[in-house]
Structure formats: C-alpha cells, structure tokens
C-alpha cells in the first residue's frame, strides 16, 4: 500500500515537472520587452560596462532620463550586439537603439532594409544648444552613414582615423618631417633598418590589421573606391594593372627587406603592438584607438604622433571609419531613441568621448587629447575614405576567405606579387562564380 | 585460457519476464510516459527541431532576417566548389584520423604504463586534468607558451641558443592545433580505457607473463580483446567529439574579434565563419546550414561504418 502510494507520488512529481517545463517554455517565449509606454526605450550597447565609452554614455543616459522623463533600459552587450539584434529582429523583443561601427551596421541591417531612416534626426535641435544635428555633424561623414539612395542609417558619435603611429621622442626627425610619399616612407624605413632597428610592428595574427596595409596601398593607387571596384569585378580583370602590381610590390618589399619586427607572423595579439609601444619597433599602422590601447604599457616618455599613410599618386585621403547610433525599423520607441541621439551630440556630453574615452568625435569644435592631435588635423583637413575601401564590410566573405589569407602570404614573403596576382585572380573568379548563397 | 562466450542466438541477459504481467511491471509501465515525455519534449525542441530547421534553411538563401528564398541544391553544389569548405572538410577528417590515431596510440601506451604503476589514481587525475580545464583557457595558455617570445622559445634559446621557432605561423598553426587537440583529449581516453582494463582479472596478465608474452603481446592478446567493447564505444565517442571541436581552434587561432585563418578551419568553424563569425560576419545562413547538414550526413555514415567495423562478440570473463 505504501509502495503504491509512493509510486503515485513519483508519477505526480514527473507530471508536475513536465507541466512546469512546458510553462517555463511558454514564459520564455512570451514578450518580456515590457513595451507599451512611449516614455521609454531600450538600448543595446556595443560597449561593455567597464569601457570608458560606456561610462560616458551611462552618464549621458542618466542625464537624459532626468531631463526628458524618458526611461532608458540599457544593456551593455559588447561587440556582438548587432549579431544579437539580427536574431531579435524576428521576435517582438527588438531594441530601439543600437550602436556599432558603420560597416557592421550596414552589413547586418541595411542590405535587408531593416533600419530606420534617421534623416529627420539631422533637423532635430540639440537640447541646450541652438544648433541642429546637421550643423554639428559635417557632411564628410555621410559617405559612411548613408545608403546609395541617400537614406541615413547611422548618426555618428565617434570617429576612427587610421594613421601610421610612432614615438616622436625616439624619432624626432620623423616628427619634424613626416614622410608623405611611399618613396619617402621607404627611405625612412631603410634608415631605420640600417640603424639596427625594427622598422614596422604588425600583429599578423589579426588578418584585418595586415589587410590595412595592402588595402590602403591599393586604394591610394586606384583612388578611393578603386580597390572596392577591383574586388567586386566578377572577371577579376583589374589585377594586372601596372599600378596595382607596383602597390603590391611595395607591400611585398616590406617583408622581403625584413622591415617587420621578428615574430610578427607567429605572435598573439597584442604582443607586437606592445613591443612597438616599448620602442622595439618604429611604426604601427593602426586606428586612432592605438594610444589608448597601448598607453599603459608604453615606454616612459613615449610621445604619440602619427602621419597619414603615404601616397602612391595623388590620393591623400585619410582612411577612416565611424561609430554611431542606429535604430531598427521595427523599433517601437524610435522617437524616444532619436531624442537621446540629439541629446548625446551636445558639445559638452560628446566631448567626454574625447576627454574621458580618448577618442575622436565627428564634432570639429570638440577639443582632442594631445596624442590624437595629428590624426585630428588630418581628419579636419583631408578628404576621408573608408578603411579597406569598404571591402571589409560589403564583401566580408570574400575578404575573409580569399583576400586576407593571400595577403598574409604576400606580407610574410611566402608568395611574390606575381603569384599573388595569379592566385587572387583565380580565387576571385571562383568566388564570384560560386557565390550563389 | 578459456573464455566463456555466450552461444549465438540466445539472449545474454534475461530482463524480467518477457511481457511483464505482475503488479510491479504494470506500474512501471504507467511511469514510463511521465518520465520519458519531458526528455522527449526537450530533445524534440532543442535537437530534432533545430536539425530539421537547418535542413530546411539549407535549401534557401537567407540572411537571417529577410524572407528565405528557395535555392534548391545550389548551396550544396557551391560548397564543393568552395576551396575553404574543402579545406575545412579535409581538416575535420585529419583531426578525426590523425589526432584520433595519436590519441588512441598514446592512450594504450599510457594505459600499459599506468596500469602497473603505484599511485595510479593520482597519475590518472593528472592525465585527466587537461580535459577538465576549459579549452579556451588552454588555448590562451598555449598561445603564451608557443608564441614568438613565449616560454618554449625562451627555454630553447637559453638552453640551446636557437633562434625562435615560429610555432604559430601559417605553416605550423594547424599542426599545433592537432597536437593541442591530442593533449587535451588523451586524458579522457586513458581514463576510459584504464577503467576497462581495470576490470580484466590480473591472472590473465600473470598467465600471459608466464607464457613469455611481451608488452605488445599482452596488449594484443589480453587487453584489446577483453576491453574491445569499451574501446569501440570510445572510438565512436571520439568520432562524434572530433566533429564538434570548436573552441580550441577558435581561441588558439583567432583573436577577440577575428576568426582564425581559414586554412585551419574545421567544419564547425566553417559553419560559424559563414554565419556569425568575424569582425564583419557573412550572415550566409543557408550556406552555413548546408555545410552543417553535409557534415552530419557524412559523420552519420562514418559512425555506421565504424560500428560495423568494430563490432565483435563481447567476451565475458
């Protein structure tokens, strides 16, 4: 009798478990976004809570809540916030505001028309400033933030300029007279090598960093948009151009002349850029985050200076990228999110991206940290071009599978420029021929 | 040496009465559904469902958000033309066969050595240790050990005065991944095989020794036949886990935001690389699903073949 009772109890427990699991599943699938009131919005940030940008944004969000009465639900998701957004777009739980580098946003939600056109934000007045957003965000950034049809998918709040960094304390001659053409740069490198130094630092395990060199050399040669056109050609016919060959030979010669610091092909990031900051190599081609990223490990008295990537002809644009806000098309509280965008672009708030997070902003009236003065000058004076000419964002699959591996071989002296041209021509044709998915 | 093998055709074990009619069996049958349903529901929802969904997605072009567009078998035919996929497939099979052979060879050797050692439970724990620690942590440690100025090169240059060896460059990276995989996995298989060997009564070994059998002969005529059922399960287990190796390659070959170079991708990394992976993901969900389905089919076939090859009548002792 007791046995039967116990068994019945076990059965009841098992059934309860089944029902509970079922209910749990149902609860998980229910909409927990808590939407409804227009006086709130959800923000999925690309920053993690301890990063300086997150601290600046958190302060601005708190001010915004106080001033506008709009509640903000913020999630510090980190760099894969856009990947998570992509999954969320098929549910009801879509954030109202996200931020990321322009190409990450365009790659995820622009081609498939999942973004909200933010052109209206340009006309919004920045609270506390008698200026509109358009008046403080120069048009030179539109190439990063608008689609071919002119729709605005991003409002930038941080700018990245890519330049060649060095320590002015160790290299005062370079500081006095930074090289402008590739030939001048090659002379500087040769002198560096001759004096027993390592001319260039490169963390070769990040294929994207190696790509900066070749992609910039090619877009300098062909002009902005030229490299993009070259790789989008299904016949891959442009690689035999003498200018292209010349640029590739220039990059290949860096490896041939052993200008890269030993171990650049077999270290783990950030080992090599740390060596650069400790004066074991002279130059580092990197985004404007370089001083922040290497600052704590830099040699005493290290004076961060940088110059524009040398020219191969007439193009002297500054390779750049922007980070900004975007609003998904299906966001419920887009208006509230847009209000915050305008709020954040106020000079006083945005300048903290510069003064506290040590990065550049799109507002030209914001003071920049000392170590970013050179790159900021380039930013203000030169035309801008997209880093890797936009190839990394728009042709990411090709870039990752065809261009980057061959480029690494070129930059480690495994193949000659001619072999590179042969292999990329075949690889590019095959890629586009098989690119049906 | 006489070994009792059950006559063919007869059940090896009798489990209760053939059609239980007693009160115990009836109530046990009543409990069957409540216990099976939760697991079945979860399994359907999280394993069978997604697998079927992946099969369906693999016939489409899909960026994860827009409507799927029917693509027939195009994704599959594109895979065979894709050198990166062919490399990933080859790498997966190399891991399966080469790393697998190394793991089992080393496991047998270690089993033979450890079996006769004192303090073997301690040694067993030490050998098992790499399997407990997260592969991500191990891959980071390996990065520090083998990089240009890492521990190994520092020791080599101090002791022998050699130039640093580029362990992690493009030529050596996959080999290092293979070695790392063997190192991480061997402990588990030593433990499994050792447990099987522990069941073998000592007198078989004593008799073999008296008969003058050397270590290889003891392995060939005593250990292998008497632990064959466990070894065949371990082989199947390795086949399945080799397909799923991901985090060691990802963390060892890549960096925070970047995938490892495509030359070292296996099929699991290929799926990730074509969907969410990298600084600027490809979002080719149809293509990635096709590769995953293809690997599932290939490995299912492999496992069926392997099971047939490894099938032996089990020996009772």
TrEMBL record, chain B:
Q: Name one GO biological process term.
A: transmembrane transport
Location of region: Disordered: 1-22
Q: How does it sit in the membrane?
A: Multi-pass membrane protein
Q: Name one GO cellular component term.
A: plasma membrane
Where is the ABC transmembrane type-1 domain positioned along the sequence? 89-306
Q: List the subcellular locations.
A: Cell membrane
Naturally occurring in which organism (per UniProt): Nonomuraea longispora
> What is the protein's name according to its record?
Sugar ABC transporter permease
Listed CDD domains: TM_PBP2
- Keywords assigned by UniProt, alphabetized: Cell membrane, Membrane, Transmembrane, Transmembrane helix, Transport
Q: Which residues form a coiled coil?
A: none
Alphabetical list of SUPFAM superfamilies matching this protein: MetI-like (SSF161098)
Q: Where is the signal peptide?
A: none
Q: Which family does it belong to?
A: Belongs to the binding-protein-dependent transport system permease family.
Q: Which residues cross the membrane?
A: 31-59, 93-114, 126-146, 173-197, 284-306
